[in-house]
Amino acid sequence: PSTHPSPLLPGISTYRQKLHCFLFTADIATMQLCANKLDKKDFFGKSDPFLVFYRSNEDGTFTICHKTEVIKNTLNPVWQPFTIPVRALCNGDYDRTVKVDVYDWDRDGSHDFIGEFTTSYRELSRGQNQFNVYEVLNPKKKGKKKKYINSGTVSPPTSPISFSKEQTYHPSLYYIVNVCNPSQPTSLHYMSPYQMNAYAMALKAVGEIIQDYDSDKLFPAYGFGAKLPPDGKISHAFPLGGEDESPNCVGIEGVLEAYFQSLRTVQLYGPTNFAPVINKVANCAAEITDGSQYFVLLMITDGVISDMVQTKEAVVNAASLPLSIIIVGVGPAEFDAMEELDGDEVRVSSRGRLAERDIVQFVPFRDYIDRSGNQVLSMARLAKDVLAEIPDQLLSFMKSRGIEPRPALSTSPLPELHRHI
């Protein structure tokens, strides 16, 4: 039952809630690769090759961070230049292993594996040279054929190549743009005088809806993955207003002000760990489990995560608490890790334990950008989907604990929403 239903959050008016939000950024890299003499995989043609980039994690696993487009019917493809956050590729560690798989695209999705190679961002950033020619190796073929050398090579383009009219050559590009500087238009955090960046739009879209469920309108707002002044101490959960300041911001406008101010004072820095901030909010939620308050953690990210094992454990532990986690992905990166945390299809597990409830909702912001440039419409679409699962998640916790809604009052104010940003 709801005494004050919301068009976006029906049925959540009789419980207090708290919204926590955390933000981080990354540098952007732009690069291009081509291949030479790849294996022929198609019976009636050549191959339809594409590349899949993987970032190596601290636990020895790999996470997809980029896929190129498919180039049809060629063994010597030149892929278009692409951009990717440096954090997504290597989490700021330029010598971290980057694995690249080469596939032949098939219409039915059963893409044929051509081979693989490993590199690093430091090597890739050097551009075209003799050390940047990578042998594409297929371990199975190498084990079966004594005379096997490789399944082709991959390198930056060296000179224009003849193409059909549908294809054009683009020169090899290698550069890093400091997106931590909000004055640069290429930054994900660019503070344009004419429009909001994706981080600000996500904050405003979600916050303006959910803040109406909180009586004090205070948002504890934090950042993570940065070196803090004056001594450069690395923190994964620092108040946006400053380490010595209260994390509370007055309303969404206060959050936005603290967010932009923090970009001017801190140095964004890896690794990027999610677990500390999830555990921080979970500790708050663990103190009030009688149903009088419900916590919502909003995390805005470019897709990088350095502590996936610890984050899964944090989510599993938090699933028994009055807490929901909203993750909004911004930028061009692949968000496979975020999709894995969203338990819609497969419930998150850690150390053999399944999460008691599905408490994570992930959406990529790029899917909600209106092509006409209408930011209001983009924000409305984002808010609708990003908040869609909160009512069921809240009710699932209350029902699991046998907590009944409080009786409706004749003149009942809107319930308090606790929010941290």
Overview of the molecule:
With 421 residues, the chain is an alpha+beta fold. It has 2 domains: 16-26 and 180-420, 3-Layer(aba) Sandwich (Rossmann fold), CATH 3.40.50; 29-175, C2 domain (Immunoglobulin-like, Sandwich), CATH 2.60.40. Helix content is 23%, strand content 25%. The protein is built from 10 helices and 23 strands. The protein has helices spanning 86-90, 121-124, 139-144, 198-210, 251-265, 275-286, 308-318, 336-341, 375-386, 390-400; strands at 16-23, 28-31, 34-36, 49-56, 62-67, 82-85, 97-104, 112-120, 134-135, 153-155, 175-177, 218-223, 226-228, 233-235, 238-239, 248-250, 267-268, 293-301, 323-329, 349-350, 353-354, 360-364, 419-420. The strands form 6 sheets. Strands 1, 12, 15, 16, 18, 19, 22 and 23 form an 8-stranded mixed β-sheet that branches. A 4-stranded antiparallel β-sheet has the order 5-4-7-8. Strand 18 (293-301), helix 7 and strand 19 form a beta-alpha-beta unit. Helix 4 packs antiparallel against helix 5, helix 4 crosses helix 9 (375-386) and helix 6 packs parallel to helix 7 (308-318). The protein starts with 15 loop residues before the first strand and ends with a strand. It comes from Sparus aurata. GO terms for molecular function: calcium-dependent phospholipid binding; metal ion binding. Keywords: Calcium, Metal-binding, Repeat. This is Copine family member 9. Belongs to the copine family.
